[in-house]
## 1
Amino acid sequence: MIRAELGLGILGTALWIYCLFDVIMTDESRIRNLPKVTWIFVVLITSVVGAVAWLVAGRPQTPQRGLPYKGNTGSAYPEYERPGRFVPTNPDDDAEFLRKVRERAEAQTQEAKRQRLERERLEAEQIERERERRRQRSADPAAQPGPTGNPEPTVNPDPTAKPESTAPPEPTAEPTSD
């Protein structure tokens, strides 16, 4: 006898908890007969009686649909079945797309070739300037190699600068009073 009462008590508590969570989780627009808050209080206060009342009079009769539009078949990816959705096509079937891709690839190839030629031209000009500068150094008789082997300039680059003297300053003699 005690076992039967204990079993019924456990089943009643499980039903009560299930219905309480079901009321809380159900969308308010789908609940029948009473507002959602009222159903929560009915199930909480009257326990098993409120749970049975929820199952009979408050719970939605139809299962909830996954998406809010007609034609939902419940597939794994329903966004692909949405009406008016753009359906991608095979790019090989679209001649306009392929033409644009070829034009863009050719334009990129031409730009890369132009940049490479410009870079080579600038490098050649720099090499030529360096050769010209070396020829001028070797042809300039005024430029003589210094102690380090580098030619020393004979002209002061800054005419307003004072020439540097490497000799130490001479001591000045002050007259002595004897």
Note: The mean pLDDT is 78.
## 2
Amino acid sequence: MASSTKSWLLAGTLVFLAACGGKSATDAQQQDDQQAGLPKPQQGDGSVTGMSSKPGPGDVPLSGSPPPAPAPAQDQVDLLNPNPETGALPGGVPAADNTGAASTEPTAEDAAAVIRDYYSSIDSRSYARAYALWSNGGQASNQTPQQFADGFANTARVSVEVGAPGNEDAGAGQRYIQVPVTITATQADGSVRRYDGTYTLHRTVVDGATAEQRAWRIHSADLRELKL
């Protein structure tokens, strides 16, 4: 009788362990099936914030309808803050006077400084700041901020030599000036490209214009690649 009882208990224990083992295997299989159905994280190609030569430094399409005005990024907001040393905005307008009657008009050198700031911003990958140095909050580039940034995805470094600005051209409430440049762009593969041409900058002088409108901003570019 004792032997029979022991056999019965041993058989019951084996059945219980088999049941537990079967449940664990089933749960593990279900967990594997669930994990197999989950979306896998996409792997990037490492080129999210690179720079490219298309359209190239300053070689921006200048036709077509301008994109909607973007919400200002932080460095675009900073662009509207005055220089703490000079009290002026980039482009030469005193920030304290927002009535259109600036005590000191932006100079030709202020226009040249905008181009230096433009390429310094591109070289440091501050694309939103560079974009905002185009007229109308960047819309004069005829690109969206993302398109503008993507245009430098293959450019590793860029520098500019700024020549003497031309004479200021006065229109009805408008001012234009041309700034000659020579640009050197080093690509991600180590190759070097050079561009020569001019930037035309614009500002508004009508009564009631904001400080941003009265500052020099890039209106258009006429650049051509040089054969090295």
Note: The first strand starts at residue 155 and ends at 162.
## 3
Amino acid sequence: MKNIGKYVVLVVVLMVFESCVGEVKEKLSKATEGVSNVSAFVKEARKVEGRIEKLKDATPLTNEQLKDWLPPNLGDLERTGFKVGQAGMYQVNSVEGTFKMLDSKKKLTIMIIDGAGPTGSMMASGYGLLGNFEMETEDEYQHQQTVEVNDIRAQQTYKKKSNDTQLIFAFAERFLVTVNANDMLPDETWDMVDNLELEQLTDMAE
């Protein structure tokens, strides 16, 4: 299991930078050699082409729309900064928000990338594979596992000593979400995700 993370990262890189779906599938098969659940992984990969076709011709939300969606606060955390278009180098639109609690170490950073368009569709498919790849590892420093919370499948990493949580998932098979929470347990972090009201993004995309 210790090499699974390396294989997953390789898959995402291939999905982002390769334009030919056939080549992606071929390299995916090679990348998963030696992994115990290859058949399940490859089965999930067969859905990739359909996801790409669905999103590649879709119109992405503008950076301005993403900025307007970003909430001013999340529970007791107040938004202290934001960035839009930081993923523009990959020809995708994105927004990042930073939220903090005064007089506390609690901090949360959320990044949303719209997976619509030729490049974004491949990224969205890669994130989808991450969520559907069952894995779990743990040592004295961190606990990493695939989880499902409120119908969202994500890769969750909890760092024990620093009490930090990271979530990576695709929402509605389109929006790529990365959450980094400082001094917050996984349950606390998921509560913040609930406050994000991600459904509004899908409503805006329709």
Note: The mean pLDDT is 79.
